[in-house]
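Here is an idea for our session: we take a single protein and study its fold together. Start from the sequence, derive the backbone structure tokens from it, and show both lines together. Once you have written the record down, we can walk along the chain together:
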Amino acid sequence: MGGIDNIISRLSRIPPRRAPEWGSGGIYGLKFHRDILYFTVAFEAEARFYGEHGLRTYRFEKVGYLPVSGGDTYNAVDAVDDEIFFGGWVHAPAVFGGRRGRGGFVLFYNKYSHVHSYSVADDEVRLLWKEGVGERDVWAGEVTDIIYDPVNDRLLLARGDGHLRLGVYSLPRRGGAAAQLSPRRALKGALHYDHACFDSMKAWRDGVREVQCLDLVEGRWLRVGVDYEGHSVDGAPHSSTPLSGCAASAYGRYLHFIRGGFIAGNPVAGEPMWYYRLMDFGPSGYGPLRTNTVTLGGGVLVAYNSYSHGLLYPRNKAEEEMARERNTTVAPSVLLYIAPPQVKVVAALGARITSIESAGRWILLGTSTTANYEALDAAPVEAGWRDVLPLPSDIIQRAPPPLYASAPGWMVSGRWWGGIPLTGYREARLTLYTRRGGTLELRSYDASMPPVGYDADRVSLSPGRESIDLSGYGPMVSLKFLDEGLEKASVRLEP
């Protein structure tokens, strides 16, 4: 046994350890390149490199002093020739600031954004760039994505999480100064033709409102707005805030996955970005957040997570509402395979799939049991159990797993929700509980690119419990209860 199978046999579950941060980080940056498997364990800020030589561990000591925390929580990684480039952020040293009431906080004086390289041939880690602000409550934009620019032989850095120095930056492959190319906050992106496309946000909680693409040949920016109602595939507006997830380029389109679905189009060729509703549960924390995409078999693998962000100790009414939304689990995390015009569920798992990689006959998933917390939820320990889960790559051709989703009425009432993929399911039922009965509208559509429209149907409901057979709808179905009094909605899918 050798190669990736030998590496997988040496992996083990990672328990909670000392790491002053907010909740749980996860396994990030999974990359199998030239018989080396790299990933970063967050929040311990521990980069691991598995190969035939054994395990090489790097604790970010080139950034600052131990003990450290953080590392990467967005999958900022790319591989070029003999090198793996990995970025993110790290506290070096990490300083837990203590308790404020029930919750705690971390001091940001020593928080740095970073980019490193790992040489496969030399088994050596080099620090290419770091940047900090040196203030207690403010930090420089984290490196949330790395894209290699093959036209100009440089690294493009998305920096979407932070207070200062946000946008898209360039960095020479051998290190040096990072130069800002766009001041517009960008969290994730993908190489698309001879362009590099990213999301564009005014603030993290505003969601994706625009796509920005850099012409790698001429250096010009192309920016296209996103109309979530006028260019909605099911004809209905987005149900909440389209928080940014991850991105891919496939089928001649740029795909950006967001809470509530994904947008897809070819802005480089003048095509609009269309909104496809997918696993949309309104303002819940469910979505493709803090994860990445991987192409496999010409399609795209992406995770929609059930508990990516949480809030334990709200300080005001707004945070109390946010906590109710974030901490309500509506469905298991799912691994989806996007192969237009269909979307297929290939796995149903626990709280979070934090990283995805394709390695030979395996799909590798980094997972965590706990959310990335907010506000004053910091503690001196990493709160989650994390591991790398190997799945056979032919899972994309197998029958989907059973799936059950349940949403309280306050979460989905008065809005369009769903976007439930029915591909591969023989039995699909929707159950609603209403106080006074009313009318339900269902819309069927698919993931064709460009879209081909939708079919609509209305069903009258009696008070109490009503069960509806969804097998005649799909391959994707969205819905809205048109009256008041919805108490609960659930979907059960059986292969």
The longest helix spans residues 317-326. The two ends are 34 Å apart (CA to CA). The chain has two domains: 3-398, 405-494. The mean pLDDT is 97.
